[in-house]
Amino acid sequence: MTVPDTGPRVEPGSFRDPGNRVLHRRGEVLRGLDERAARDWRSLAASDFFRDLLATGKVCGTEELVPVPVDLPWAAVLRHERIPFVSHPYEWSFGMLREAALLHLDILAAALAAGFTTKDGSAYNLQWRGASPVFIDVGSFEPLRDGEPWAGYRQFCQTLLYPLLLQAHLGLDFQPWLRARIDGIEPDQMRRLFGGGRRLRAGVLTHVHLHGAMQARNARASTSDVRDQLRAAGYSRDLALATVRGLTRLVRRLAHRPAETHWGDYQRTCAYSAADRRAKEEFVDRATAATGPGLALDLGANDGRYARIAARHAGQVVAVEQDPAVVDALWRALRDEGERRILPLVMDLADPSPGGGWRGVERASFTDRARADVVLALAVVHHLAIGRNVPLPEVLDQLVAYATTGATLVVEFVHPEDPMARRLLANKPDGLFPDYRRDTFEALLAARGRVLRRVELPSGTRTLYQVVVGG
């Protein structure tokens, strides 16, 4: 995707720390620092621990631009590695959130040992290179002042620890909770969920009930008052490190074993024959090979079979699947393979992530982020059009909205007589979808792009199309 050559654009989600702002300019990701932040950065850049974090890929690649570009009025400007696709924590699986939390704690422990700390503890400080998390908020590091608590503890609890506790101890998917509140789950909410005997479950008494009680006790105290109290009580870097190690042990112990779902065994239970599957794989391979190394979306990715094929040719593949358990299994497999080109995400395509936070733009919507060079929509249209009652023209409008002009759309139409379509139609009133027909679908498709190829699968009840969007 070509990035327009425009002037600096401030990232809408970077306003919370006035000392540094993230900027976009001519395809580069920059960070402007004020005088204090610039001093902190130079101390950080000179430290061995930070160089180790960069070398191991735990922190995004960062370098200072010298001299400061004339069009950027900051004391210092950093250039960051560009993350292939920005995702949000409510789009991650349990295992992904847990892995991100462990990386956050690992980085904090290294910082404390070297005389630094982080101002933030938010899950939004992490992103992904494929199946591997990476810390992106370089502006969060600052020198440690003795006697000060970790300023990011509350954020860490609300956006990382509490969602993990919710799913590990109660079996509740955390994604809707994080999507509903950009600042995460409040201690008061958690206390109501973890009353009685539940308060004795791992991590709950200390990090939910005692945390909430401490907040209530110090509600009227200033930050400096709390700092003075902790210093007088002998709070030290060693105690801070002990807290981080305790959190790390807790997070490592948290586990979630999801119940079996229909989608977890879809490749075995779906209606594809071996011949259908081979033809479909060949079609996807040829279509993605012709596009080149850009961003590919696999919508309804399931176990990642076609995402892996797309990754042979694309620079990055975002594999979207509704079932959190299926995404978690896919992420674990990709992690074990060392895959850095496929990012699995949890999302309902009938209810994709909206814009959120301040003015609705602090966290960009999925549609705004997903400007792809290849869009795979395989065995998706019938689930949206029949299963979710979305009008067929609107289904195609949304698929096209995920693509750049001239991008490739690979879409599968499941005929009304296909066993899966008949199963969905059996649960709907007769005659509800008179326009769900192949000829109607092809006319709608032709109005939105140029059809390059059309292949009917051997079963005779499914057809694949390769379309140039807007062509």
UniProtKB/TrEMBL annotation:
<dbReference type="InterPro" id="IPR029063">
    <property type="entry name" value="SAM-dependent_MTases_sf"/>
</dbReference>
<dbReference type="GO" id="GO:0032259">
    <property type="term" value="P:methylation"/>
</dbReference>
<keyword id="KW-0489">Methyltransferase</keyword>
<protein>
    <submittedName>
        <fullName>Methyltransferase domain</fullName>
    </submittedName>
</protein>
<keyword id="KW-0808">Transferase</keyword>
<dbReference type="GO" id="GO:0008168">
    <property type="term" value="F:methyltransferase activity"/>
</dbReference>
